Amino acid sequence: MNSVIPAPIARQPWSMLLPLIVLVCFGAMVLFSAAGGHWQPFATSHLIRFAVFLLMASVMTLFPRDLVRFVSYPVYALLLVLLVAVEAIGAVGGGSQRWLDLGVIQLQPSELMKPAIVLVLARFYSGLPSGMITSWRALVPAAVLIAMPVGLVLLQPDLGTALSIMFGGVVVMFLAGLPMRWFISGGVAALVIAPIAYFFGLHDYQQRRVTTFLNPESDPLGAGYHITQSKIAIGSGGLFGKGFNEGSQSHLNYLPEPHTDFVFATMAEEWGLLGGLMVILIYGLIMRWGLSVARKSHDRFAKLLASGMVATMFFYVAINLMMVMGLAPVVGIPLPFMSHGGSSMMTNMICIGTLMMVNRWNSRAPRSRLS
Amino acid sequence: MLGRRSLFRKAPPVQVTSATLENTYDRRSFVIAGFGAGVGVLLASRMSYIAIAENEKYATEAESNRVNLSLIPPRRGWIVDRNGAPLASNRADFRVDVIPERMTRPEEELGVIRDVLGLDSAAMADLRERIDRTRGFRPVEIANGLSYEQFAALSVRLPNLPGVVPQRGYSRYYPTGPAVGHLLGYVGAASAEEYEEERNPLLITPGYKIGKDGLEKQFEQRLRGVPGARRVEVTATGRIVRDLETREDVQGKPVMLTIDGPLQDYAARRIGLESGSVVVMDCRTGDVLCMASMPSFDPNSFSDGIGRVEYAMLRDDERVPLRNKVLKGLYPPGSTVKPMVSMALLREGVDPEETVYCGGGLRVGNRVFHCWQRRGHGQVNMAKGIYQSCDVYFYHLAQRIGMDPIAAMARRCGMGQEFDLPVLSQFYGTVPDPAWKLEKYGTKWQAYDTVNATIGQGYMLANPLQLAVMAARLASGHHVEPHLLLGESEGEFPPADFADEHVALVRKAMSDVVNGPGTAGRARLPLEDVLMAGKTGTAQVVSLSRSDGRSGPWKYRDHGLFIFFAPYDNPRYAGAVVIEHGGGSGAAYPIARDVTTFLFDPQKGMEALHALEAQWGGTAQERLAARYADYASRAGEAAPPVPRREEDIFARVDAEARAAAMIPVTAATDAAVNRSDAPE
């Protein structure tokens, strides 16, 4: 190795960290603009949160594999209890809520459930004998593990998070090698159930979001307003954007939530298509790194864990970008590393920390090690 | 090796090992990566499409979001009198509009507005109706002329009043109020129909008013001016961030009238409690100096819409305050036509010294037509026929020359004529002759028709302006045409084809009406050096069997008329006064006297007026305000709503006016007796 750079620093996965830091700093600039050209209240806390959670991720990196394997079920169980607690408090206090006030921080158990479902399923499948992967015993426990948190989160109601948890879980199941025909029949079943769920399962406001997504111009001042204004922001940015701090859509409040869910539109208005492509490219780089980490691992648990984390982050990015570009309904999913908000930053940094942890396991353990 | 492997693959995977699982993982993770990359490409291309292909569309939409172009209503051109004094000007004021579509909690907001502005229940009912009637984002005016305190009180509450727009602007101001109501009309927000007709965005700009009646409507385009524009950057909630660009408005061009503002005001006030009109013209130039019609409405109070109380009060008034009586009041001219008939007689070669014996009546056919003076006038020559207004003299001689020369002379004097004036409409009345009657009623002209016509009864109808023109033409001997716009007249009118000695004779006789042994001695001017000449007239409205003309129900009383000019020896001013149902000419000529006095000596004129106004209870404007307050306290919200279109209000009045004007035709032709001039 290069002797100039100290070994602990050189050891870090810079191919991921560098793009990530660039992205977070870029996000801070966008938030600076979204606050009307001020560091407060978004940009500073964004950077501080990133620093704190990066530290947390570095600490996570040190966890040994066996410890992580050991705590996966307890962690899952604890989060499940917290979800029930949230539900209970909401019922007592009247009106739904998604977080627990712990005094110091507001904990949103459903957010933590996203990486936790990946962890517990990776643990489950790594412990399952290879021969049983085609039997019902590979499917039913996993399905129950997914269904419980999804059901609780849907009760909150939070469709976006529920879908996210389900997506993470299903990707792990898919990669675990469950028979293909189950996924195909599951997909067909989903196609059948979706319309039924739409009419009987969704709340009014959720239904409206879906219908306006299909035709946002039908109600330009109502529910379609978000999508329309977001598209106006992105489209008016053009190739190079209107320039830093020059976005009229965000500055004049036409864009709803310019610092959270629609931060990409805020960015695209000022930085144009080039800024947008750069952001997409950076996400691509981070994901590719994550998948390569997973591929390099020969440990089934680590493989599934790492790829599940990538899937969780991917779901955030894909759904958020599709939403702001008018390709998906408005479901309230923030954009990782750019949106202002502690919960999503924490979840995504847990994913990153987990990947760094697996990366470290890879460098420590010989490739030949099998579980 | 290859063969064995493919064989193995074809067999169902009975045994799943960790190696095959790893294999599956590799394949499937490749699929996942491919899927992710595909989504990435999809997003990138979607974004490129929005940002490049649809860039222009969205850039425009962002700009139209950001920039709000609002028109600044142009200040309306002034309407000024012949001396440049404003009859209609603009007054800077505070106004509040509401855009109903933008109100989130209309009832609550209207409640706040009511409390802050102190609106009563009738005003609220009007406001609700206007709000119901508006379409889309068109603003509705709540009130104008707010005090600064009210304006400030509303402004601080704005965050809780979405859709309420307080503004600084200009409102139309008519200093003399009701005195110019009929002449100038009023302004108001454009109606939906007016906007359909002229799709000008200015018409729906908050605070913009268009002329709704009278000269305001007639000169709309000239008075309008060019709107200014203000480009502002606004937030999504409509808050203005900054001004981008402002273009000042260009005020509309002024319209200068021949009207003498103070005289107009004086005449309107002098009419007092009566219902009638006063027209004064300059008989050298044809300039109309005064066209007062009372009772009237106050155009100042119409500019924020006609309220229901106001409308009900004006509608219920049998004196029809919404009708311009100068142009749309048609009256039998009564004896005021006698000087004109005398001109016809002279022209036909009647010797003015020829006398007719008046014994109080004349048999025509099988009916006796009485003179107003039942005792008779004895021997009457032409001059006495005029100043004593002897009917028998004219009954007798008119039959000799027939109706046609009289009708021709009437037309030569302006009766039945529609003048070239910038007014919306004028009723021009009737000059009957045999051909007209045959065509209209299919019956032959009878001797008694001529007899009726020579004393200005029967079918004959004229408006006060025509009577004033007649006075001007008789006085000057020229074919005077009335004008309303200053500078339009060249001042030199062609001679009216009257012989000079005929004019002199008629002038002298008309002077004797006032200054000699005539019927209107009380009309003599209280001035040393100016003598006014005139002719009285009393027009009967219904037959004697219904009313004696002087008492009883107001609407059955006789009209009082007076035409005049002054100074008599060198006529400068001519005019006409018509008092509806005044009970005889005695109601009309004192007004003519005071108005003429005011022309020559304003001080003296004002003294007379002040004395009278002390009796009547204030100026016309004050009395109107008092009447409104009284009516509002009695009727309040119970008053029926205003017709949907403002035009309907006036259209109705026009129709009523025409119907009312037709009554005397039938009622008075049957009358064997008329009371042309009541004795003093």
Automatic annotation (TrEMBL), chain A:
Known pathway: Cell wall biogenesis; peptidoglycan biosynthesis
Membrane topology summary: Multi-pass membrane protein
Enzyme class: transferase
GO molecular function, one term: peptidoglycan glycosyltransferase activity
Annotated catalysed reactions: [GlcNAc-(1->4)-Mur2Ac(oyl-L-Ala-gamma-D-Glu-L-Lys-D-Ala-D-Ala)](n)-di-trans,octa-cis-undecaprenyl diphosphate + beta-D-GlcNAc-(1->4)-Mur2Ac(oyl-L-Ala-gamma-D-Glu-L-Lys-D-Ala-D-Ala)-di-trans,octa-cis-undecaprenyl diphosphate = [GlcNAc-(1->4)-Mur2Ac(oyl-L-Ala-gamma-D-Glu-L-Lys-D-Ala-D-Ala)](n+1)-di-trans,octa-cis-undecaprenyl diphosphate + di-trans,octa-cis-undecaprenyl diphosphate + H(+)
UniProt keyword annotations, A-Z: Cell inner membrane, Cell membrane, Cell shape, Cell wall biogenesis/degradation, Glycosyltransferase, Membrane, Peptidoglycan synthesis, Transferase, Transmembrane, Transmembrane helix
The enzyme's E.C. designation: 2.4.99.28
Transmembrane stretches, start-end: 16-35, 47-63, 75-95, 159-176, 271-291, 303-325, 337-358
InterPro entries per record: FtsW/RodA, RodA/MrdB
Record GO cellular component, one term: cell division site
Top-level taxon in the UniProt lineage: Bacteria
Subcellular locations according to the entry: Cell inner membrane; Membrane
Gene Ontology biological process terms from the UniProt entry: cell division; cell wall organization; peptidoglycan biosynthetic process; regulation of cell shape
NCBIfam families associated with the record: rodA_shape (TIGR02210)
Function: Peptidoglycan polymerase that is essential for cell wall elongation.
Family (UniProt): Belongs to the SEDS family. MrdB/RodA subfamily.
Name of the protein described by the UniProt record: Peptidoglycan glycosyltransferase MrdB
Protein's organism: Pelagerythrobacter rhizovicinus
UniProtKB/TrEMBL annotation, chain B:
Penicillin-binding protein transpeptidase domain location: 276-595
UniProt key word Hydrolase: yes
SUPFAM superfamilies linked: beta-lactamase/transpeptidase-like, Penicillin binding protein dimerisation domain
Superkingdom of source: Bacteria
Any single GO BP term: peptidoglycan biosynthetic process
Signal peptide coordinates: none
InterPro entries documented for this protein: Beta-lactam/transpept, Beta-lactam/transpept-like, PBP_dimer, PBP_dimer_sf, PCN-bd_Tpept, Penicillin-binding_protein_2
Record GO cellular component, one term: plasma membrane
Transcription among keywords: no
Membrane topology category: Single-pass membrane protein
Subcellular locations according to the entry: Cell membrane; Membrane
Molecular function terms from GO: penicillin binding; peptidoglycan L,D-transpeptidase activity; serine-type D-Ala-D-Ala carboxypeptidase activity
One Pfam family here: Transpeptidase
Keywords noted in UniProt: Carboxypeptidase, Cell inner membrane, Cell membrane, Cell shape, Cell wall biogenesis/degradation, Hydrolase, Membrane, Peptidoglycan synthesis, Protease, Transmembrane, Transmembrane helix
Domain Penicillin-binding protein dimerisation: 72-243
PANTHER family, per the entry: PEPTIDOGLYCAN D,D-TRANSPEPTIDASE, PEPTIDOGLYCAN D,D-TRANSPEPTIDASE MRDA
Name under which the protein is recorded: Penicillin-binding protein 2
Native source species: Pelagerythrobacter rhizovicinus
